[in-house]
Amino acid sequence: MLLLSNPCRVRRFYENAMQPERLKSSVPISKAIRLSSRTYTNSSMNLESTGTTGSAASVWDREASCYDAARQADPVYRSCIHLVVREIPKGTALCLDAGCGTGLSTLALSARCGTIVAVDYSLGSLQILKSKGLRNVMAVQADLRALPFKESVFGGCVCANTLQHFTPDGSQHRAIAELERVTRQNGVISVSVHHYSKSKRKDGWVKEGKPGQAGIDYIFRFTHDDLLTLLPGSPIRGVGYYKLLTIPFFGARLQNVLATLLGRIAALTGHGHMLIAVLSRRRPRAQKGSAVRR
Ligand SMILES: C[S@@+](CC[C@H](N)C(=O)[O-])C[C@H]1O[C@@H](n2cnc3c(N)ncnc32)[C@H](O)[C@@H]1O
């Protein structure tokens, strides 16, 4: 903890954590997630100067200390985290939490998976995550558009409530391409994003720009088709129904039940506060008549 109290030393701590040797000695799975030389040079980058992805890391540094309290008290948010994490098969040995923030999604994953590598570019958020003392979690500071990992190492990948802070001009696609690159064949990529739902349109919420939420600089709210373009062929569900919270006892659990039963229809009809898409990295089928390659 002493180490974390000095921002300069904190930065070094995380940079060190990104060095292959350091990973090797600290965790047994390190061999599998050895940093690739292609992206390793990024570990010394100034994250603010690599060009905007939409939202700036400093914004999330400032948000970090108050982030958890607001979300933990919100049944819709808790339901979304539960549902997006639930897509990762129980017992997955090595999982990536891409855009882990302060670790709300990481905490849910830690009960489900052997080891979680939690990545975010906000050092302030990673400090909060580290303070939670999750034993099977390794925190890495990196940009999701250039992940410092080798190909096909993670059995599963969660990217919860993060992609809406990337611009649609290539950043979203680059991040998804990176998630696909580092996820194994037959692995699952589970993504949740903010939905540009019918009720948000009616209430005058912007599709793209300043979200209207204090402190957050940029949001891109997804339609069903936006998300399908990013993750072709993925089933999409609309989850989180704020209007139903006015019904007594309609908490996170009933939100989960409803999203499970009706989420697909909700997404198609423009309902649900968030959208969840699940991409299975299926092994490409051998073409009929073609020789089997070994
Ligand atoms: C709304 S928070 C979500 C955090 C967590 N997954 C959750 O659901 O509570 C979005 C997170 O995305 C991170 N983020 C945004 N752009 C990023 C980028 N280019 N690379 C890495 N992390 C990024 C932010 O730092 C922030 O922690």
Kindly describe this structure.
The chain is α/β, with parallel strands linked by helices and 294 residues long. The chain has helices at residues 2-5, 7-17, 20-26, 37-40, 57-72, 75-86, 104-110, 123-131, 171-182, 198-202, 224-230, 252-268, and strands at 94-98, 115-120, 137-141, 154-160, 183-194, 208-209, 219-220, 236-239, 274-280. It has a single domain (2-280), classed as Rossmann fold, CATH 3.40.50.150. Strands 3-2-1-4-5-9-8 form a 7-stranded mixed β-sheet, with helices on both faces. A two-stranded antiparallel sheet has the order 6-7. The longest helix has 17 residues, at 252-268. Residues 1-27, 37-50 and 289-294 have low confidence and may be disordered. The structure holds S-adenosylmethionine. S-adenosylmethionine (SAM) is lined by residues 53, 55, 57, 60, 81, 99-101, 104-105, 120-122, 125, 143-145, 160-162, 165.
What's the layout of helices and strands?
Blueprint: H1 2-5, H2 7-17, H3 20-26, H4 37-40, H5 57-72, H6 75-86, E1 94-98, H7 104-110, E2 115-120, H8 123-131, E3 137-141, E4 154-160, H9 171-182, E5 183-194, H10 198-202, E6 208-209, E7 219-220, H11 224-230, E8 236-239, H12 252-268, E9 274-280
Parallel strand pairs: 1-2, 1-4, 2-3, 4-5
Antiparallel strand pairs: 5-9, 6-7, 8-9
This protein binds S-adenosylmethionine.
